[in-house]
Give the backbone structure.
Amino acid sequence: MRRKRRPELEHSALMKPSYRTATSWRSEDCLSAASSADPQEGAEIQVRLESTALCSSSGRLFRLCYNRYMKQLTKDQFDSLLQTAVIRPKIRREVRFANVAQLDEATWLHTEVLAVPDRSGNKGVLLLKATGNALYVASYELKRGMTSSTGKAQPIICDFCRTWQTGTRAGSITLDKPGRANGSVTFLCCADLACSQHVRSLTSAARTSRSQLREGMTNEERIARLEQRINELAQVVELVAYTGEYANTEK
């Protein structure tokens, strides 16, 4: 019996996939770093690890070592950030910060890609937490569903988190370059923009992707790869990295 051929994946013409480009500390290295701290600091680390409920213990250790936290922004801080980033006035008026204001601090801490949409849900502002202590912001337009020339659902690999998606779960996102007339760049993406959940294996799409791509990466490796990809894509779009009051300075 002839084996059915797997449909070809669509990759962004701009960014070819590289599934093991990210490098990361092992969780054992993080444990070693924690154990070498003074007793009081070590106790604080343990409490913080035990209080984190969204991911596996190895993921918690990994993020602690890398200080990979997105700071929870207030409405005033968000508005100031949009003003500083020269987001178009129309988008600033139409985005609905209330959509993300209800998220608790723990969710912000474990998010690298956060969409703040307008009423339609197809446009808005994208907050991107990268390696180090940088926060990127860009206005976006999202299109859901990818089809081939024959009208069939076209599988893709997200340019951000490298999750395999198909049908209505696949999409493309256009990010505006800073300024009023500097153009834009389009990437393939998860239509739900839930990349932070996918890399933590919290979704059915993540489990399907692991099976389709036969990936053996750990959650922490996928998180590190996501942040690395954000850095790379931000350079392509020429985004400015914001720190200070917009970034989490917790050590």
Notes: The first strand starts at residue 113 and ends at 117.
